[in-house]
Write a structure and sequence with these properties.
Oligomer: heterodimer
InterPro entries (chain A): Nop14
Shape of chain B: elongated
Structural class of chain B: mainly alpha
Pfam family, one (chain B): CBF
Order of helices and strands of chain B: HHHHHHHHHHHHHHHHHHHHHHHHHE
Protein name (chain B): CCAAT-binding factor domain-containing protein
Largest sheet of chain A: 2 strands, antiparallel
Strand content of chain B: under 5%
Number of helices of chain B: 25
Distance between the termini of chain B: 94 Å
GO cellular component, one term (chain B): small-subunit processome
Number of domains of chain B: 5
Number of helices of chain A: 34
Family (chain B): Belongs to the CBF/MAK21 family.
Strand content of chain A: under 5%
Structural class of chain A: mainly alpha
């Protein structure tokens, strides 16, 4: 059985040395001197605390989930801490509430009151002396910290001096300001009133503080540090500060002097001219004048100085003016232009290779990602990854959206070519037009470039004459049409030749700079123009190509500012083609397709307009049915367009080869004896074979061949031979284009056979004129084939670095700590952390609120009890009073009665 | 017991009065029409009233106007005759009893004769008249079949063999009979199992003889419309004529299938035109083969078709494959034949995706010799050089899958020559393609020694998507397998639509515009300024064309 509590306590006290044998007096004194006593006292306090803890086990709360075995957990820190002390925390919380909440509670429904803002008043950690010292230090600092250099009054305000034995405490004259000393003595007494007022406004609070300090200081004479010590400290401090301040002031003065000297130069630099030497300002002799007046005179000077300061500051922040660019010489300009063109060409080549032309890399990456998005998710349609539409949902067009992100460069705008747009040489309008296109980025001197150039009006041969004769009838203002009907209405009475002029005037009148809404209007107008070009080619029997060309050039120039509108119009046309007449192109379609080849870069790997244009032509060539000679002419036109499209990028087009070879086989005078090559042969229903006995010569094909077939058989034969001629030369051009292709042999071997067959069948004298072309093309293809044979090598496509085998090692974390979160996803980890924090905070806040509520309830109860008790007390007192009065009255009565009885 | 029948038929009469004649009313002049209608009505009621008016039947038959040609029959008379005969049959007037009097027998014989006459008239209408009359006559004839079988005991087999046979033949031979045939199929043959059974029977007999292409067309239409093949444990319940004693024949699935098989075989044996053959091949797997309890009977037809070449071969392939797979058919030189199908027109034909689906199955085996697979790959790549984009899009992933399963073939994409002499020779003289395109045996084409220059060329195809697909063969082969189905059914239209979208949608990004506005597009304007030399964009067109 353990000994009793009392015995235990005694034992532990003895063990820790709190109680022990009495020390002798001598020993005590010695201890006190050496400071051992104080140390001992501290030790004793600690020991006592420990013993108290040990004997009150309920003070300490054991940790909730104590680990069973120390070895199993790494963070032993929490267990060794020995749990929390709920009692202590509780009482702490209670105390804090009493300090804050209770006060608030008590001051509820109360208005006004005095806020104690004295320094350190509410800081319980400071002793009174400390408070006093700190206040004094602040006060003196405040005085030293001069807000304004020029606030002269501040300095001499010495309302308050420490005195010692009635003598002011001077610190070796250090507190006498130099500034005060040299100019303004004697004024102090005069402007005291003014100064006082100012001070009161400036620092109320500080004064209060100070006054308070004084009172407190007097009220508490008992201190640990002696007053002398404190004062010494304060003085030392203030001395130090003063010294520093002085030093800074001197520096400032130096700087100011320097600046003063430099000021004239500065002004000079500012004005850009030499200022006349400044008159020496009249020395103000203030000694003789009335001090107040002198002050007044001083005032403006102060102002100027302030102003000066401000100016100076502004000047330091002013940007340095950079040297202006000098005007460029003609060569430099040409060089720049060449540079620009080179850059454009580079961009084009980039686009051709399918790379992205963009300045910032991020965008590029983005696009890459989205383009290959299909690769990542396996369950997606494989074909979609290549931009092909899903078969069940033909609308999906990922490819389009991903790829057509070519940003139009502002410097794409080309002024020079605009100039040549003008047909009728109205210079003013022309300039306006060119102005319009070089929007903000092109600098002003571009205009000079235009002006300097001779306007090519004199050289425009046909249109000029016409327009000159016609312009007289033309109106000068036209509304901007909003649809094609509107435009047709406008040009109803206008000769075809004048349409370009009208277009030009509309463009000039609705210049985007004139009105903000004009940009949209012109965009719409450009769409109408595209429509109109096709309309012109479709409707008119013999379209005027000079006009169409001019309109196309207008479209081109509009496309630079309204690319989207123009592209949309073109695309709408293609959509119409593919929906309504994929296999029978109208003349208008051909003109539009030709327009595409000039307005848009057809060499791009992907282009929102060129790619559909390619597809439209290829589809026509691949699937069309030849029923008339004009069909063949259309096909030939389309084929030549394809060659033109690919003249830069040299891409391979199977449909082209198929069509040309097929057409040649169908046009040849005799049917080839056997199947040639692997292209699918399509016999026409009607025979279009050359069958002429007369000698005919091929001519250059004309656009009207596309529109109508010739009437008489002779012209028909001529057209056939011309078609053969053109097709053969197309073969020649294409063999040039594709000479580098590795499958050149496979592509052109059938072509050679077809040509040989043609040569055979052209033995007839009638076709002697076409024989040369066939022969030369055949030679060209033969050399190409030989070349290709020589350069043929087995393919080496897979020179890739071998792929690393996918690693399957699990990710192993060294020093794994279960309390730590190893989330590889940064964002998620962050979110989780925040969530956890939020939860914890919320819990804590709720707990606090609950405790607050219970505290308030408790307080209220207490108050009520107090009130009740008070009431009870009062009540009792009153009762007692009444009773005593009653008793006394009764006694009186008794007495009286007895007295009367006695009398009686 | 005539009374209840009378009642029911009078009900029918009412309904038919409301239905059939009203639709006819517009055709004939109003008053004339009502007059004939009332006469017919009178005649009919008279017949119903008494025997002595039986001669009215003859009048009615003559009123049908079908003697010389049945172009414009009087349908009202036909309908009323049908009612008359139904009533008489139901009343038992067609049954000869031995005990009956002589004159009774004469009347029955006479009535039977009239009935036959009436049936002939109906057949004539079915054969020759316009569609609505045809359909009405068909309905009447079928009604007659039903009445006779239900009310005359023991007449069933006889009726099916005579009257119904006539009907089937008439339906098949009918002029402009598409609607009639669909009506027949939908209302009767598909609906009632006995009708279908006997239709098959009669059709197989009918098609045994050589018939014209049109008739065979209609027979094929009827036969292929009967799609539902009864399962072995099928319960036959829906009969046109309700019967008590279930005949064994009509209730077994196998006998149904046998009839159908006979009918189909008769068709296949007949003289078929090329389109008919193709359409038969097209429905072979799904519509014809299920009817066959012995599909090997199709073998001759299929092999013949397969050997025919062209599109017919392509179509025969699936049927043949079915036989090879299910019936263990051994087809010698199957792969050579398959290889020969890869001709210039294949990639342009509309059966392209169908063929590729099958080809994918045929070449799926990893046990095929690499030389053979290489031949197919090389052949396809040769074809691809002249193919439309939609075909290239199939070919390249297909090749990729083949390369994945036959790694030996990957030499066609990457071949380093180790032999120094050979390398020097190639360096000096270039090389020929080792592939022999003329060789018909796919194991001997030497394709595995060749390279796929064609696909490499297609990497610069004008269509960006096609080009990027062609590029997969020169990239790392990291993907396990391309799902061929995703690439199969693309068309020009689909591709254009993918580029353009179906409706007006704003472009997301501004398209690039050519930076230089050309001086000339069509004309020779300002040519002097350039020193008369026409160059720059669009000069190519100007050189070839005059505008």
């Amino acid at each position: 059985m353990p000994p009793s509590q009392l015995k235990q306590l005694k034992a532990s006290l003895r063990d820790s040395g709190v109680i022990g044998p009495q020390q002798s007096k001598k020993q005590k004194r010695q201890n006190a001197r050496t400071g051992v006593a104080a140390q001992n006292r501290n030790q004793r306090n600690e020991a006592l605390q420990a013993i108290r803890d040990r004997f009150n086990p309920f003070e300490i709360k054991a940790p909730k989930n104590r680990s069973k075995f120390d070895a199993t957990t790494r963070d032993g820190s929490s267990t060794t801490a020995g749990g929390s002390r709920p009692g202590v925390t509780k009482s702490l919380g209670e105390e804090r509430r009493r300090a804050t909440l209770l006060k608030e509670m008590n001051s509820r429904h109360k208005v006004g009151g005095i806020l104690d803002r004295r320094f350190g008043e509410n800081d319980p950690t400071m002793t009174l002396e400390e408070r006093a010292a700190e206040r004094y230090a602040r006060e003196s600092q405040k005085k030293l910290r001069k807000e304004s250099m020029f606030n002269l009054e501040d300095d001499e305000d010495d309302d308050f001096h420490f005195t010692h034995m009635g003598q002011p405490l001077t610190l070796d004259g250090a507190n006498v300001d130099d500034f005060d000393a040299d100019g303004l003595d004697g004024q102090g007494s005069d402007d005291e009133g003014l100064r006082k007022r100012k001070r009161v406004v400036e620092d109320d609070g500080e004064n209060e503080d100070f006054i308070d300090y004084e009172e407190e200081g007097e009220a508490q004479p008992e201190k640990k540090k002696s007053k002398a010590e404190v004062m010494k400290e304060v003085i030392a401090k203030s001395k130090f500060h003063k010294h520093e301040r002085q030093k800074a002031k001197e520096d400032d003065d130096d700087l100011r002097d320097e600046l003063d000297q430099e000021l004239p130069d500065l002004f000079e630099a500012l004005r850009g001219m030499k200022a006349p030497p400044k008159k020496e300002p009249a020395k103000q002799d203030l000694s003789g004048v009335n001090p107040e007046r002198a002050l007044l005179m001083q005032e403006p000077e102060k102002n100027t100085e302030r102003e000066y300061d401000q100016r100076l500051k502004q000047l330091t922040f002013d940007k340095r003016s950079a040297p202006t660019d000098r005007t460029k010489t003609a060569e430099e300009k040409a060089e720049e232009e060449a540079e620009r063109l080179k850059k454009m060409e580079e961009n084009r080549l980039k686009r051709m290779r399918g790379e992205k032309v963009s300045d910032d890399e991020e965008e590029e990456e983005d696009d890459k990602d989205s383009f290959f998005a299909g690769d990542e998710s396996e369950e997606e349609d494989d074909a979609v990854a290549f931009g092909l539409p899903t078969t069940y949902q033909p609308r999906a067009d990922m490819g389009v959206e991903d790829e057509d992100d070519f940003v139009i460069d502002d410097d794409l705008v080309e002024t020079r070519s605009n100039v040549s747009l003008s047909l009728d040489g109205s210079d003013m309008e022309e300039e306006e037009l060119s102005d319009e296109d070089d929007e903000p980025d092109v600098p002003e001197q571009e205009d000079e470039l235009i002006n300097g150039m001779t306007l090519p009006t004199s050289t425009t041969s046909t249109a000029v004459g016409i327009s000159e004769s016609a312009t007289g009838k033309l109106a000068f203002t036209y509304p901007c049409p909003s649809d094609h009907e509107g435009f047709l209405e406008i040009i109803k009475d206008v000769a075809t030749e004048d349409v370009p002029t009208v277009v030009q005037r509309i463009r000039a009148l609705h210049h985007p700079r004139i009105k903000p809404g004009n940009k949209d209007k012109l965009g719409k107008f450009s769409e109408i123009l595209v429509e109109h070009v096709a309309y012109m080619a479709d409707e008119t029997e013999q379209p005027s190509f000079a006009v169409i060309e001019n309109l196309l050039r207008h479209i081109h120039s509009l496309a630079k500012s309204h690319a989207i509108h123009v592209a949309t119009a073109f695309r709408a046309r293609f959509r119409e083609i593919s929906n309504d007449r994929p296999l029978s192109l109208l003349p208008g379609d051909l003109v539009i397709l030709t327009g595409v080849s000039t307005v848009f870069p057809t060499s791009d790997h992907f282009h929102a307009v060129s790619t559909p244009a390619h597809l439209c032509i290829a589809r026509y060539l691949g699937q069309c049915n030849v029923t008339s000679l004009s069909d063949l002419a259309t096909g030939t036109f389309a084929a030549s367009l394809l060659v033109q499209y690919q003249s830069v990028s040299e891409r391979y087009m199977p449909e082209f080869i198929n069509y040309v070879l097929n057409a040649l086989c169908n046009l040849a005078p005799a049917e080839p004896a056997k199947e040639i090559g692997l292209f699918p042969s399509r016999k026409t229903e009607k025979s279009f074979r050359l069958a002429s006995s007369k000698k005919i010569t091929p001519r250059k094909l004309q656009f009207k061949d596309v529109i109508s077939s010739p009437a008489n058989p002779e012209a028909e034969e001529e057209l056939k031979l011309s078609l053969v001629n053109t097709l053969v030369s197309l073969l020649g051009s294409s063999s040039d284009l594709w000479s580098e292709k590795s499958a050149f042999i496979e592509i052109f071997a059938p072509a050679r056979e077809v040509l040989q067959h043609l040569r055979q069948s052209f033995k007839n004298k009638a076709f002697v004129a076409a024989r040369d072309t066939v022969q030369s093309t055949l030679d060209k293809i033969n050399t190409g084939l030989a070349q290709s044979h020589l350069s043929r090598r087995p393919l080496l496509l897979h020179n890739h670095r071998p792929l690393a085998i996918k690693s399957a090692i699990p990710k192993f974390e060294e020093n794994f700590n279960p309390d730590k979160h190893y989330d590889p996803d940064r964002e998620r980890a962050e979110v989780n952390r925040l969530k956890k924090e939020f939860k914890r905070e919320k819990k804590g806040a709720m707990r606090e609120l609950r405790k607050d509520a219970s505290f308030i309830a408790r307080e209220k109860l207490r108050e009520k009890k107090e009130l009740d008790a008070e009431y009870e007390k009062k009540y009792r007192k009153l009762i007692a009073e009444i009773q005593s009065e009653e008793g006394r009255a009764a006694n009186d009565y008794e007495r009286e009665k007895r007295a009367r009885q006695g009398k009686r | 017991m005539p009374a209840p029948v009378e009642l029911s038929s009078s009900k029918k009469r009412k309904s038919s009065k409301n239905g059939a004649p009203s639709s006819k009313r517009r055709a004939v002049a109003e008053d004339n029409f009502t007059e004939t209608l009332s006469t017919i009505q009178d005649l009919e009621t008279q017949i119903a009233e008494s025997r002595k008016h039986y001669n009215n039947i003859v009048t009615l038959i003559s009123m049908m106007k079908v003697e010389d040609n049945a172009k414009e029959p009087e349908l009202a008379a036909a309908v009323s005759l049908c009612r008359v005969f139904s009533r008489l049959i139901a009343a038992g007037n067609f049954i000869e009893s031995n005990r009956a009097a002589e004159n009774e027998k004469i009347i029955v014989a006479w009535l039977k004769e009239r009935c036959l006459e009436y049936q002939r008239g109906l057949m004539a209408i079915i054969r020759e008249a316009d569609t609505t009359s045809q359909v009405t006559a068909l309905t009447l004839a079928m009604r007659l079949v039903k009445e006779r079988i239900t009310h005359i005991p023991g007449a069933e087999n006889n009726i099916w063999a005579t009257l119904f046979k006539d009907i089937v033949e008439a339906v098949v031979e009918a002029q402009d009979g598409q609607d009639l045939q669909t009506e027949f199929v939908n209302k009767f043959a598909k609906e009632y199992e006995d009708v279908r059974y006997f239709t098959f029977t009669h059709l197989s007999e009918y098609a045994d003889v050589r018939r014209s292409h049109e008739i065979i067309d209609s027979i094929i239409a009827i036969l292929s419309a009967c799609e539902e093949v009864p399962a072995a444990d099928h319960e036959f319940e829906t009969f046109f004529v309700p019967r008590e004693n279930k005949s064994k024949q009509l209730n077994s699935a196998s006998s149904h299938k046998k009839r159908a098989q006979e009918a189909w075989l008769a068709i296949l044996r007949n003289d078929l035109s090329q389109p008919q053959r193709k359409s038969l091949l097209r429905i072979m797997v799904h519509h014809i083969e299920p009817w066959f309890s012995r599909p090997e009977l199709l073998m001759d037809f299929l092999t013949d078709s397969y050997n025919a070449g062209g599109a017919t071969s392509l179509l025969a392939l699936s049927g043949l494959f079915y036989l090879i797979q299910e019936k263990n058919l051994d087809y010698p030189q199957f792969y050579s034949k398959l290889y020969s199908l890869l001709d210039a027109d294949l990639l342009h034909s509309k059966h392209r995706s169908r063929f590729f689906r099958l080809l994918n199955t045929f070449l799926a085996s990893t046990h095929l010799p690499a030389a053979l697979v290489a031949s197919f790959i090389k052949r396809l790549s040769r074809l691809a050089i002249n193919a439309p984009p939609s075909a290239i899009v199939v070919i390249v992933p297909f090749m990729y899958n083949l390369f994945k399963s036959h790694p030996t073939c990957t030499f066609m994409m990457h071949r380093t020559i180790r032999d120094k002499d050979l390398a020097a020779e190639i360096e000096e003289h270039g090389m020929d393609d080792p592939f022999d395109a003329a060789e018909t045996d796919p194991t001997r084409t030497n394709a595995i020694e060749s390279s796929l220059w064609e696909i490499e060329t297609l990497q610069s195809h004008y269509h960006p998507n096609v080009a990027s697909i062609a590029r997969i063969i020169s990239e790392q082969f990291t993907k396990q397998h391309y799902n061929l189905e995703d690439f199969l059914d693309h068309t020009y239209q689909g591709m254009v639509q993918a580029e353009l979208g179906t409706g007006e949608r704003p472009l997301k990004k501004t398209p690039v515009v050519e930076y230089q506005i050309p001086k000339r597009i069509f004309t020779d304007r300002m040519l002097e300024e350039d020193g008369g030399v026409d160059s720059g964009p669009a000069s190519f067109m100007r050189r070839l064309w005059d505008f």
